[in-house]
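Replying to the earlier thread about multi-chain prediction with a worked example.

Input:
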Amino acid sequence: MVKIICVTGGKGGTGKTLIAVNLATLFKNHGFNVLLVDGDVENPNTYLLMNGKLENSSEVSFFEPKIDEAKCTKCGLCAENCISHALLYIKDAIPIPILNVCSGCKLCYKICPTEAIIADSRVIGLIYSTKVNNIDLLIGELKPSEARSTVIVKVLMEKIDILLNDKHDKYDIIIFDTAPGAHCDVEELIQKADYVIPVTEPTRFGRLDLLRIIELIDLLNKEYRVIVNRSSLLGFRDQFLNELNDNDIQVLGDIPLDEDIVKSYCIGVPLMDNHSRFDTQGKGYKSFQIIYENLTKWSDMKT
Amino acid sequence: MERHENMKRKIVAVISGKGGVGKTSLTASLSTLGSDDSNINPIVLDCDVDAPNLALILTPKRKEQIHSEDVFATLKANLIEERCIQCKECIDNHFCEFNALRWLEDNQIPEIDYLACEGCGACKVLCPEHAFEIKSVKSGEIISYETIFQFPLIYGKTRLGSTTSGKLVADVKQFAQNLREFQASNIILIDGPPGIGCPVISAISGVDYVITITEPTPSGLHDLIRTIELVEQFNIDFGIVINKADLESPFQEKFKHLIEETGYNILGKINFDLSIPEAMSYAKPVVNYAPNSSASISIMEIYDRLKNQLWNHQ
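Result:
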């Protein structure tokens, strides 16, 4: 059975992508077939941390109403029923679509008595499917100035569903990297996961955002364990870990500040890559090994 | 401090693309600099409605004066069961584009998936028996108070699972305009959400100036470029702040080169400085916690340059 792990975190910049990429690399190192899914469609960064390229793309389209002026009787029924006010209608004039507020419900297209509304579409983003370092990568990317990121996340999820149904033995493990925040894009991904890993840091902001994402994870009834990144920051590690412990929040591991991590991040070679030549005795390297061990136990992955 | 003639109220949004690069820390410091300055009278908005953090630093002057109100901006469909004649047309004719309608075989009625429902009203209009209605549900809350720094803070907080971050951001901005302090204020500072999607678009719409903050890493650069692409499409004047500007990394050279090549307006650079996380751990803006630190000096320069861009640079 393929297992789905979702790396998320509430707060931005806590190290979600770094951790998702390195966990994918560790599973690959141990001989598993891994799919890494970049669900931070507003700013997908996974491939940058692996020196990958965006290739093999498919388009994600979104409904756009177009008015056939010859057929339009200027009755205004479409505008009257459009809850998002995406059709501007002035009496006896042809309605004007206001595309940036259109929800894509197609109601106008369905109810127009003279079939004067054409269901057109525009590309709002792309899905890339590529392979880097023997890890399959599925990346969603929203076009700047488009608002409907969730549409792209949903297409990603449909692709996962197809994989799970048709080729359920192709992957042993699927890892999601989510956007920051606790909105619907994040929710969609958590909902599909078996194991959720919120990443945080030992700061006031980190703590508050962690509690919020845990609230969402609880709402969705999922199991989670926390990773504390930059744990050595200002010497707050023990205090922070104790606090989590006092609140019955289970911890998968912590990652201290480490120069090798910054370097790996900036040159686009995962720290845990077999050929990365980073110091295998380094603080960051060792902490990832511990996290991997704890994760395989938790998720019952036989190595 | 130089005097600005014909000062006009300006709305400034701090955004970043990539999360965790210092939006909130910068906004907090810019706001207290503004309140110490004559004539500026800032109003500060935290529009990162998914993870509002500014209130941790800009704390209330009097707890009992915190104002909080629920916002009902989310629309959701609801089934009026007694009207449903179980014709199943809603499913068979695919009323819902968001797949929020499912047929319950046991009860022979449709069920609404509230998470998927966009409240578009298609089911309500299309159902021949009028068995659906659209209701407003709580999408979050707006909290406002006077901070210990004597200016108002307003922030929004989404209700988890309510799907309307962008709308709540717009509501927070609207709320600010109705404040008593609004008329005398010359700057509305917005701490924006990360990303480039709906809440960000909502946060920057109608603003006069955008500060986009980044760090010299591949992800930082990548997200900065996408943010600029968005801001340029909206035709908003912007300046870049580079945080952790002296980060020791093999990417530095490439970053500097690319940024310089573009000719974009750099509003300032902030070198890595432990006084920033330290200030945060004491719940203070860094310019108040350590005014002589290198970070604070850089932020004061950014503040002066910002003022210059807003009021002298026509």
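Chain A touches chain B through 60 residues (CB under 8 Å).

Feel free to reuse this layout for your own posts.
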